[in-house]
Amino acid sequence: MNWEVIISAVVIVVGWFIGHRLSSKRDRSNKRRDLRVSYLIEAWRNLENCTNRNDLDTASILEKAIADINLFGSDRQIELAQQLVIKIKN
Fold first, then answer.
1. In this predicted model, what pLDDT tens digit does every residue of 10-26 receive, in sequence order?
2. Is the pTM of this model over 0.90?
């Protein structure tokens, strides 16, 4: 039996497996980042839409925007959103 062929086949299979795992991990990370960005963009649009309005629909839109920021935002973004809520309450 030709050991070189067997070793080559094993190296190819292991290399393919490792490449596939790394590619899958990268794809999941990219998708997660894209979803996070799209939710934060929508939150920004909702906040922008709520400025200088006093109707009840605006309150629910504002709540959704703050919730999205709390869920997907960075620590700094969450802190700023909380400061906004405190200023609105006062």
1. 999 999 999 999 999 99
2. no
d(CA 5, CA 3) in angstroms, rounded, equals: 5
On whether the CB atoms of residues 43 and 69 are closer than 8 A, the answer is yes
Q: Round to the nearest angstrom and report the end-to-end CA distance of the chain.
A: 82
Q: Tell which residue, 39, 48, 45, 46, has the closest CA to residue 70.
A: 39
Ramachandran quadrant class, 74 (left: phi over 0; alpha: psi -120 to 50; beta: rest): beta
Report long-range pairs for 37-43 (Cβ below 8 Å, ≥24 apart): 39/68, 39/71, 39/72, 40/68, 40/69, 40/72, 40/73, 40/77, 42/68, 43/68, 43/69, 43/72, 43/73
DSSP designation for 55: S
Helix residue ranges per DSSP H, the chain:
3-50, 56-72, 75-89
Neighbours of 45 (CB within 10 A): 12
